[in-house]
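Work package 3, deliverable 3.1, input record:
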Amino acid sequence: MAKPELSIGEVLQILQAEFTDVTISKIRFLEAEGLVTPARTASGYRKFSAGDVERLRYVLTAQRDQYLPLKVIKEHLGAIDRGLRPAAGGPPIAPSTPASGPAADDFGATGTDLRLTRAELCAAAGVSTTLLAELESHGLIVAEGKHYGGDAIVVAQVAAELATYGIEPRHLRPFRTAADREVGLIEQVTGPRRTDQTQQLAALTVRLHTALVRSRLPR
Amino acid sequence: MAKPELSIGEVLQILQAEFTDVTISKIRFLEAEGLVTPARTASGYRKFSAGDVERLRYVLTAQRDQYLPLKVIKEHLGAIDRGLRPAAGGPPIAPSTPASGPAADDFGATGTDLRLTRAELCAAAGVSTTLLAELESHGLIVAEGKHYGGDAIVVAQVAAELATYGIEPRHLRPFRTAADREVGLIEQVTGPRRTDQTQQLAALTVRLHTALVRSRLPR
DNA sequence: GCCGGACCTCAACCGCTGATCGAGGGTTGG
DNA sequence: CCAACCCTCGATCAGCGGTTGAGGTCCGGC
C-alpha cells in the first residue's frame, strides 16, 4: 500500500479539523523544537507520514487538554519512542481524545472545508481501505463526489479504535440513524440551508446527547 | 480550638520545607491572582489560616506535578469551593484530568457525583419545575432516589434552550433512545460496571456521534 | 521613644515559552 | 511562464509567572 506523504499544507488542513489554532508556522515551530521530524524531498520540502501527523495530534492534544509544556510532551514522546508506556493520564497514543475543550461546542469554525481523496483520508486517519469501504457500505462515511470531508477522518479514526474493542462497523449503524434523525430535527427548525442557527442547534443537540449518554452510563 | 493564624513569614517557613522555590513575593503574587485570600489585621498584615496554607499547598502541588496554569488551578479551586468533587487521579488532594468547567466532554472526571434535589436542579439549570416534570415524563432526566446527577443540569439547560427554538421535550425522546442504545453497546463490551474502559468507550462513541452529525449537516 | 526587622503597596522590570511575521528566495504544476 | 506553495532565518511579540526596589508602616524589645 502506497503511503502518500503529505505536504505541510495538507497536514494543516487535516489538523485544523480538530485543532482550530494550528498554523503552518506552528507546525514548523514544533519541528524546530524537535517534536516531529518529517522527511524532506530533495528540494527541501517537508513530507509528513501518517505517523508524523499522529505525533502532531498527540502534541496538540496534550497541549490543549492537559496544558503540558512542550518540554514535557517531548519527554513523553521520547519515552514512547523508546517503547515505554507514557505516564498514566497522558493522551492515548492512538487518537481517542475525548474531544473536549472549548472546541467542543465549535461547530462553525472547525471543519475547514477539507476535501480529501480516498487515499488521503486513509493516510490521515491511519486506516485501511478495507475498513473505509466497510464504513461506506454502512453509510457511516459518505463521499461527496470523489472527496471526503474532515469529519470523515474522525469517524474513521474512532471506528478503527472501536474495532480494537470488538465493535465493528455494522454495530455502528444505529449511530448513523441517530445522527440522521438529529439533523432532520434541526432542519425542521432551520430549513435545509446551513446557517448560524444550524450550527448553534447542532452544538446544543450534541451537548444533549453527550449529557444523556453520560447520565446513563453505569455509576 | 485556638486557630493560630500565621504571618506570611511563618507560612513561608512551612511551605519551603516542601517547595523549595516558594518565596514571599510569590505568595503575595498568588493572592493578587485570587488564589488565596488570607484575612488581614487592622493594620493590613496578612493572616493565614490553616485552610489558606492548605490551599497554597494545593496550588504549588498542581503547578509542580501537573504543570497546570494558575488560571486552571483557580477554576479547580473554585469548583472545590462550590462543593463539587474534584477529579480523581492526582497526588494528595490534587485534581487532574482536563479542565472541568466549559471543557465538559471528559468522561472520567466531571462532577457526576453531584447529588441535587429537585429544587437545586431547577435552580442550577434555571428551568421551571414544569419543564423538569416534562423532561422526566419522557425519560430524559431520571432521578436516582430523591436526587439528580450533574448531567441532569446540562440536559435541563439544553432542553430549555431548545425550547426557545420550538423544540419540545417530546421531540427529544429519540435522543434518549439513542443514548440508551449507545450505552447498551458499551456495556456489551465492558460489562455492567463502570470502569476506565467504559469511560474510554463512551468518549469514543460520543466523538463518533458528533462527527457524524457534523458530517450530515447541510453544507 | 526609638531602633531593627518584618510587613505593607505599587509600579517597573524580567526571563522564558510559545509562538508569529516578513523579507528574500527556491519549487512545482498546470 | 506564472500562481500557489514551500523554504530559511532573524526579528518581534504577547502572556505568564513571577522579581525587584523604592517608599512607607507596624510591632516588639530595650
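DSSP finds nine helices and two strands in chain A.
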